[in-house]
Structures are given as structure tokens and as C-alpha cells.
Amino acid sequence: MLRTFRISAILEGISYLLLFSFSMPLKYWANITEPNIYIGYVHGFLFVAYMIFGLIFSIERQIAPKKIIMLVLASLLPFGTFYMDEKYLKPIANL
């Protein structure tokens, strides 16, 4: 489950960055809305998957509530899922 959760965190982070750095500028500065629609759908799916896998992972590993809150907050910040993966998930994977 850890591997699946880490992959979902990375993919969610990439989609979040694509949304903010690529499709939203196209939408608001160039009035090109199509990329925003598709990247938004993908990001929404990956966000929900990240939350579900995070919940399953937290229950499976009996993670403290403070870290669960950090997992949720990481998905709301740019580069947050990358930081969470590097600081908390990668050390667990190396055990």
C-alpha cells in the first residue's frame, strides 16, 4: 500500500503543478480553456485517489492524527506532496 500511496502522491503533485503552471495561465491569459478542462479532470481524479489511498494507508499503518492532517494539507500546497513523500514516506519505504 505504501508504494501505491507514494505513486499517487507524486502523480497528484505533478497534476497540481501542471494545473497551476500550464493550464491556468493559458485559460486566463490566452483564453484557451481546453487544457484546463482536461488537466482539471485528471487532477480531480488523482486528488480523490490520493485522499482514498491516504486514508487506507493511515488506517493500515495506524498513523497519528497529526500526520494524517499533514497528508491532507500537503495535497493543498504546491510541492506539498513531494515534500511529504521525501520527509515521511520515503524513510518508511527504506525500512
Short description:
With 95 residues, this protein is mainly alpha-helical. The chain has helices at residues 2-29, 34-61, 65-74, 80-93.
Could you walk me through the main structural features you see in this protein, from its secondary elements to its overall organization?
The chain is mainly α and 95 residues long. Helices cover 84% and strands 0% of the residues. The model has no long low-confidence stretch (mean pLDDT 86). The longest helix has 28 residues.
| Termini gap | 14 Å
- Provide the helix percentage: over 70%
**Secondary-structure element string:** HHHH
Please state roughly what percent of the residues sit in beta strands, choosing from under 5%, 5-15%, 15-25%, 25-35%, 35-45% or over 45%: under 5%
Largest sheet: none
Overall radius of gyration: 15 Å
SSE-based structural type:
mainly alpha
- pLDDT under 50 segments (min length 5)? none
Shape designation: elongated
Outline the fold blueprint:
Layout: H1 2-29, H2 34-61, H3 65-74, H4 80-93
Helix pairs in contact: 1-2, 1-4, 3-4
Key terms:
mainly alpha
